[in-house]
Write a structure and sequence with these properties.
The protein has ten helices and 13 strands. With 294 residues, it is of the alpha/beta class. The strands form four sheets. The protein has a five-stranded mixed β-sheet with strand order 4-3-5-13-6. Helix 7 links the parallel strand 9 and strand 10. Helix 1 crosses helix 3. One of its GO terms (cellular component) is protein-DNA complex.
Length: 294
């Protein structure tokens, strides 16, 4: 009896769940219903003849088979992306997919690339703090203009593009609002909003946990987007530490952004896959390197 072929769509669904260890959140990001996602993963397990997850009422964990497929799945999806792009190029369609995070300075890079390669089409894809490292590694995007840290730098090359000062988002009536700069120690008693589904390193850096003196802030609510951040901050549920470039795009009358001293600056990088980057990817990297490091 012939074994069923491995369905890349099911692999993509599996990887989304495996990265988050949460079916509901993966379903939201994939824009499908949770029952449909569960059925697809169950079918993949049936096709493979093994369980990929250990499911309990409280948590989801990967089995050894699941750990292996997560590793191989990233490579499979990246290979599929490269094959798709090679087919497009053979058909006369050159396209580069550029991932980006909220607030990064993308326009100068795209203008420089467009000037050097006017024949290339560019597609943009928004990346979030829970998938910004995985997307360029597994081929969802060719390159990513992202912030550090990532869950894992394995399989990625990176070029540093710049630094970003951290600011604290506080209610406009907060005692610290309006100051030109505030030391991190001034937030010792403030709950800090946490980034849902982010890797431990991301939350550690962007919540400044632990603090330079070794203390740890109280944990505020988890957030999934800027609108949630702004709503919680306005309600006084906690403060949020953000890149200054993001705060500039979200000016609100009831929110104040205060520069924070005594903490490292954030880092923005260009990330692309180690394994066989496309010609357009190499061209984009070369253009950005020449633009940022003349």
């Amino acid at each position: 009896m012939q074994e069923p072929l491995l369905d890349l769509r099911k692999v993509r669904y599996f990887v989304a769940v495996a990265e988050r260890l949460h079916f509901g959140r993966a379903a939201l990001d994939l824009r499908i219903s949770q029952p449909a996602l569960s059925r697809q993963v169950r079918q993949l397990e049936h096709d493979l003849g093994t369980d990929l997850f250990v499911r309990t009422s409280r948590e989801v964990a990967l089995t050894p088979a699941g750990e292996q497929l997560l590793h191989d799945g990233h490579q499979l999806l990246a290979a599929a992306h490269r094959a798709r792009e090679r087919a497009r190029r053979a058909g006369g369609q050159d396209r580069l997919t550029v991932g980006f995070m909220l607030g990064v300075r993308l326009d100068p890079l795209l203008e420089a690339f467009g000037g050097a390669h006017p024949e290339a089409a560019v597609r943009l894809e928004r990346l979030r703090w829970w998938n910004h490292g995985e997307a360029p590694r597994d081929g969802r995007v060719d390159v990513g203009v992202i912030r550090l840290p990532v869950r894992s730098a394995e399989g990625l090359r990176m070029l540093t593009l710049g630094q970003e000062r951290l600011v604290a988002a506080v209610p406009a009536e907060h005692p610290l609002a309006g100051r030109p700069s505030v030391p991190i120690t001034a937030f010792a008693d403030e709950p800090v909003l946490r980034y849902a589904d982010a890797g431990p390193a991301w939350n550690a850096f962007w919540t400044v946990d632990p603090r330079p003196d070794g203390t740890r802030p109280a944990a505020g609510p988890e957030v999934r987007d800027m609108e949630e951040i702004l709503a919680y901050v306005r309600a006084g549920s906690g403060v949020a530490f953000l890149p200054e470039t993001v705060s500039a795009a979200f000016a609100r009358p009831h929110i104040a952004y205060v520069p924070v001293s005594g903490v490292p600056a954030g880092t923005v990088v260009l990330a692309w896959p180690v394994a066989r980057p496309t010609e357009l990817t190499r061209a984009f990297v070369d253009t950005v390197r020449a633009f940022t490091q003349p």
